[in-house]
Amino acid sequence: MQRPVAIAAAGIVATLMGGALIATTILAPSDRLAACRTGNVAGGFNRLGGPFTLIDGAGREVTDADVITEPSLIYFGYTSCPDVCPIDNARNAAAVDILAEDHGIDAQPVFITVDPARDTPEVMGDYAANMHPEMVGLSGSEAQIAAAAKAYSTYYARADEDPDYYLMNHQTMTYLALPGRGTVEFFGRDDGPEEVAQRTACLVEAAD
Known about the structure:
It is a single chain. By secondary structure, the chain is of the alpha+beta class. The protein folds into 2 domains: about 5-30; about 35-205, Glutaredoxin, CATH 3.40.30.10. The protein has helices at about 5-25, 30-35, 65, 85-105, 120-130, 140-150, 195-205; strands spanning about 55, 60-65, 70-75, 110-115, 135-140, 155-160, 170, 175-180, 180-185. The chain starts with a helix and ends with a helix.
């Protein structure tokens, strides 16, 4: 009495395996990317990211095309941040190391300040160099920072009026951008470095 059930179950497994094979071989690139994601963006991921012009740690004006030359984990924050920014930047730096060691993928963490009044290009350059040798630290004028944040639909605002010791409110998403493709995923604070690396590797391989 159990044999027909076993045969039916085997048929279901075979069907599922066949579907998996089709999914990995003939799906469109956009579908392959979607299979790697856990996040969704209303209107599509092309709504996140876009052209920007900022200043790097050496004082040079750079564009998004200059910066995103390899998979990039982009984070908006500020160097005086007392809690979340150091942890999130360290997580992104650790994910980059895992990508290199376990997946053979070169990637970079990118840190864009939302506090250009205190975070000069030199300050951002020093912070980035101390955090990770591959980290890119970017500053710019108020207008340049605002434009970059708007491109990534990220929020920030000064929290109080103290001229020297104020805090900044800001979102804490990390955006994964691929050269020639733009933003393909975002990561939250609960995603550990292994999770970030695994999903990034999946997306990089699916995009190739």
